[in-house]
Design brief:
By secondary structure, the chain is α/β, with parallel strands linked by helices. It is about 60% helix and about 15% strand. The protein folds into three domains: about 120 residues, Response regulator (Rossmann fold); about 130 residues, GAF domain (Beta-Lactamase); about 90 residues. The strands form two sheets. The chain has a five-stranded parallel sheet, with helices on both faces. The chain has a five-stranded antiparallel sheet with strand order 7-6-10-9-8, with helices on both faces.
């Protein structure tokens, strides 16, 4: 069976007889130690903090009031209940003890039962104060953690908002590094576009080993840790963090969650950015094709005009040739040679016309090729 530890009481009195009375009265229920002056009290407290101090008021060279003031001014010490013990019990004396930071006042001579009762009451008071301090500290810690977490989450939300203004991969990477700086972190970023990875650092210099790590790390795991370092992956985006605060478990857990959300946001914006870049490229291609169509159309129009002119000219020539041939044979029937001559003229004109039409067929083929390129 574990014995409960007795409360540790420190008695301070310059009279040896009073110190002996305190020892005899309290040693059964408490662990009691006594010193003869204020300086010894302060030294003893710094060596071992008591649960309560019984402090005589009238002592030399430092009285009990000054001892209590120094105890209260020492912020490295926890709160120690102080019961003043004095032969003087006027209102003024009690008020002086209160103003010095005392918790209770006992006037000599006193009954030992009264002393024990005040000590027990004050020790219970100390427990309650300690519990309140703990609750207050826990509440403060929770509040600070909540504020910190909200601040860290705010950085991710700010990134998501600011990333909408990023028009290329470099500006997106710069926005990531700005967010990391606000989180007190540093790292390297890998962005993959159309199967080609590009590595980014806060500066233009990319660390070779960090690049090698990101280049060989798979994307099947969302978070991969290596001691203080970690890699966060999401699709075509990968973030390498050099040092996380693993000594602070709460901060470490929060930042891992925050960075996992951050890289998802990076990957989402990267996808939208790639769509925009592809759209711009397609628009540029279409613009070039339209210029080509306009140029080809102008060529076709000009060519058709030339073809029509050639056809008209060729048929005019054929008619003249036929008229001449007819004139040469007026008054006589056509011989076989004359008929062959006329057929030769007509056949030649037909071939020339077919050749001219073939030129238009070739232009039509070119238009079809351009249309396929647009689609």
């Amino acid at each position: 069976m574990i014995m409960e530890q007795k409360p540790y009481i420190l008695g301070v009195d310059d009279e040896p007889g009073n110190r002996e009375i305190l020892r005899e009265a309290l040693e059964e229920d408490f662990e009691i130690a006594c010193v003869a002056d204020g300086e010894s009290c302060l030294a003893t407290v710094r060596d071992r903090v008591p649960d309560l101090i019984l402090l005589d008021v009238r002592m030399a060279p430092m009285d009990g009031l000054e001892v209590c003031r120094q105890l209260r001014d020492d912020f490295e010490l926890p709160y120690i209940p102080v019961i003043f013990v004095s032969a003087l019990g006027s209102v003024e004396e009690r008020m002086a003890g209160y103003q010095a930071g005392g918790d209770d006042y006992l006037v000599k001579p006193f009954a030992l039962d009264e002393l024990v009762a005040k000590i027990r009451l004050m020790l219970e008071y100390r427990k309650q104060v300690y519990k309140l301090q703990q609750a207050s500290n826990e509440a403060r810690t929770v509040a600070l953690t909540a504020l910190t977490s909200a601040s860290e989450m705010g950085e991710v939300l700010r990134f998501l908002q600011d990333s909408l203004r990023c028009n290329d991969h470099r500006s997106l990477a710069d926005q990531v590094f700005s967010t990391l700086e606000n989180l007190g972190l540093d790292g390297m970023l890998r962005l993959e576009s159309e199967g080609t990875p590009t590595f980014y650092n806060r500066t233009s210099i990319v660390h070779p080993l960090g690049k090698s790590v990101l280049g060989h790390c798979g994307t099947d795991q969302r978070v991969t840790t290596f001691g203080k370092s970690a890699i966060f992956s999401s699709g075509a985006a990968m973030l390498f963090i050099r040092a996380l605060p693993i000594e602070d478990e709460d901060a470490y857990g929060r930042l891992k969650d925050i960075l996992a959300m951050l890289i998802v946001g990076v990957e989402a914006r990267l996808g939208e950015l790639q769509k925009s870049l592809n759209l711009i490229k397609r628009e540029q291609t279409l613009a070039a094709l339209l210029q080509s169509i306009e140029k080809t159309t102008a060529e076709i129009v000009a060519s058709q005009a030339k073809v029509r002119t050639k056809i008209v000219k060729r048929f005019s020539q054929m008619i003249k040739e036929m008229e001449k041939a007819i004139d040469d044979t007026i008054g006589a029937g056509l011989t076989l040679e004359q008929e062959d001559c006329l057929m030769t003229i007509i056949t030649s004109a037909e071939k020339d016309t077919i050749a001219l039409i073939s030129e238009e067929v070739d232009l039509e083929r070119r238009l079809k090729q351009i249309a396929q390129g647009v689609r």
